[in-house]
Amino acid sequence: MNPAGLSGAAYWLPLVSAAVIALAVALYVVLDGFDLGIGILFPYFRQESQRDQMMNSVAPFWDGNETWLVMGGTGLFVAFPLAYSIIMPALYVPVVLMLLALVFRGVAFEFRWVAKPHHRRWDLAFAAGSTTAAFAQGLILGGLLRGIPVAGNQFAGHAFDWLSPFSLMCGVALVIGYALIGACWLAMKTSGEAELRARALARPLLVALLACVALVSVWTPLELPRVAQRWFSWPNLLYLSPVPLVTAWLALRAWRALSTRHPTRAFYSAVGLFVVAYLGLLVSTVPYLVPPAITVWQAAAAPHSQAFIISGMAVLIPVVLGYTVFVYRTFRGRVHPGEGYHH
């Protein structure tokens, strides 16, 4: 994978920058995923007390979780400006849709409390914003996986090239996945009827997610020969063979935990399913930042720019991680009816 003529900092700095961005995106998907999932599940909890518990279970965390999205986007802009300049026009519509939905959801989250008892429209806005943001992220993923046409280091396609049955399927799969980790979070963080309802919803969502994973695993190599070559050539097939086994083990672990008094295990198993799927996507696309045309080295900024962003991230990431651990530790435990961050 080493491009001809690259060595030393010119070779390693883009890899480190790409790894940092990949970490930020992974943390965003996991951390913001479960509170997006709570918004997706909102219509399935009818009682006001249950909805208050749901909101209060993520109130101390949700805005901080989005820090990782900002970090990933900023890192891409600074460290890989060429990739940024191609990806943004190619995926402009779903990116803007995602950002508007996230803003709408955030406003609804805060306004719901001050609008009581006339807050039904904000309940709807919270659910719609969460679902739309999750679906748009799936569209972005599907559009990126399918590939972006590039000519002369510029986007050479049309505004709706990202729209395809494959990207729509990715959107639905991500909505289901976020709903699953949201349900597992509620099973872990709430009590009473809200917990029982979350456990009941988590089981069919787990089955639906496994069906989506199976569909993606079959569809992707059939649609994209380069992915099939990556996964099914030798010796890659040997190295990657544990992936479906790990996926099945995590799913079984989550299912059993939802039937016992160990909801924490169910949540971490669901997160593990996301991590395995994410690593599988990385395996399918490495070393391309803009599949199948632009690699990390072709898209990289000058080495001094790479060093600058890595130095900044080396300071920023431990600070944000430390804050995240502190907040989650401070607000650990279940949220019972009548309790909450906003009361």
What is the CATH T-level topology?
Formate dehydrogenase/DMSO reductase fold
From the N-terminal CA to the C-terminal CA, the straight-line distance is: 55 Å
Number of domains: 1
Strand order of the largest sheet: 1-2
Which structural category fits the helices and strands? mainly alpha
> What characterizes the major β-sheet?
2 strands, antiparallel
Helix content: over 70%
Polypeptide structure, described:
The protein has 343 residues and is an all-alpha fold. The protein has one domain (14-328): Formate dehydrogenase/DMSO reductase domain (Formate dehydrogenase/DMSO reductase fold, Up-down Bundle), CATH 1.20.1630.10. Helix content is 76%, strand content 3%. The chain has helices spanning 9-41, 48-58, 62-65, 67-79, 81-90, 92-114, 120-146, 165-189, 193-223, 225-232, 236-240, 242-258, 263-285, 296-299, 303-330; strands spanning 150-151, 154-155, 288-290, 294-295. The strands form two sheets. A two-stranded antiparallel sheet has the order 1-2. The protein starts with 8 loop residues before the first helix and ends in a 13-residue tail after the last helix.
